[in-house]
Design goal:
Layout: E1 13-16, H1 21-32, E2 37-40, H2 46-52, E3 60-62, H3 71-83, E4 88-93, H4 95-108, E5 112-116, E6 127-132, E7 135-140, E8 148-151, H5 161-178, H6 186-208, H7 213-233, H8 237-249, H9 253-268, H10 273-283, H11 288-299, H12 315-322, H13 336-348
Parallel strand pairs: 1-8, 2-3, 2-4, 4-5, 5-8
Antiparallel strand pairs: 6-7
Helix pairs in contact: 3-4, 5-6, 5-7, 5-9, 6-7, 6-10, 8-9, 9-13, 10-11, 12-13
The protein binds nicotinamide-adenine-dinucleotide (NAD).
Nicotinamide-adenine-dinucleotide binds at residues 42, 44, 67-68, 93-97, 99, 117-118, 120-122, 125, 127, 129, 155-156, 158-159, 163, 167, 253-254.
Pfam families: ADH_Fe_C, Fe-ADH
Keywords: NAD, Oxidoreductase
Domain Alcohol dehydrogenase iron-type/glycerol dehydrogenase GldA: 12-152
Amino acid sequence: MPLEFTHESLGQRVLFGSGHAAENLAQEIHRIGGSKVMVIAAEFEQPLAEMLTVGLDIALNYSDVVAHVPLEKADKARQEAREYGIDLIVSIGGGSTTGLAKAIALTARIPIIAIPTTYAGSEATNVWGLTEAARKTTGVDNAVLPRTIIYDAALTASLPVELSIASGLNGMAHCIDSMWAPRTDPINQALAAEGIRALAAGLPAIKANPDNLEGREQALYGAYLAAVAFASAGSGLHHKICHVLGGTYNLPHAQTHAVILPRVLALNAPSAPKAMQRIGQALGSMDPIGALNSLYEQLDAPRALKDFGYAEKSIEESIELILPFVPASNPRQITADLMRELLESAWSGKSTAESYPSSR
Ligand code: NAD
């Protein structure tokens, strides 16, 4: 078969180095030339923000960060940014903090320097999200793509092990879903495969020792690759399911992704032999489903949506909400029965080794 594809790479500067975030931030603010800098960091991230911005001229410190970026919170932050004449945003925190920075950039068209403290990966995508009346809207706009990312694994050391693992598996989901997402191509697949390898190496090291900086570096590197692959390949079946469940039932983002991932892998497996081979190679196994299950066991990863507030009685409604969003590119045709099987096993937490969605 001839090799033929269209691939678009997003332009970003990435500064990666443990213990170097403060000096890299000073250098980038100078390079980009911001004169009125707004620093966004959630309340608990304030000490970290203070540490990273010592000696810098900051016009506005902003801490009103709420998960999933409610529209009224975005509007309030936008108004403050306008009042202060902000021309550069620095976001320090997880995906919720980056999300608020993106909401401002979407309307104000000003650059962002992102300093992530989780493995969610929002900093490497041009996707924004806003929540209004319990419905999350997302969109794509290059104005929200942070101009620079500053990665410092030492900043993720405070992320509790459970959350590190769920967040890292959210990254793993970006990689695996990229293998069959609507714009999948050999470049984003190569990034995704390396992301799977790095996350599968980093997360067990964090589990064994949360202070292991090398493990955290691998996880952060993997999370970046995962997000670049996802931004390029687009949302596949996994992300569509999680988007509907998270938005409709207010489930925690990273844990929902972690629970759903092995089930989507098992569901698509019979119809995606090449993707399975690639994922298996990245996990160092001929059996990617078994390898992912072993990794989950080793990590004691989240397994059941019932542990995170999802009710069994919501399954039928969820099927109706999810089916219209199943991407046409998905390798397997998804029926209501298959989706029910997937959601039932996700709700109860059965391992995919026990409840492999059937291949009918
Ligand atoms: P989050 O930012 O809400 O953080 C999760 C929790 O971890 C919070 O309680 C936070 O206070 C805490 N936390 C963050 N960093 C910490 C640290 N270093 N130490 C201790 N605690 C820390 O969640 P998240 O999983 O990072 O991001 C999820 C959000 O990001 C969702 O809204 C999701 O939709 C969005 N997201 C967007 C994209 C995109 O491309 N636009 C990609 C991934 C995620």
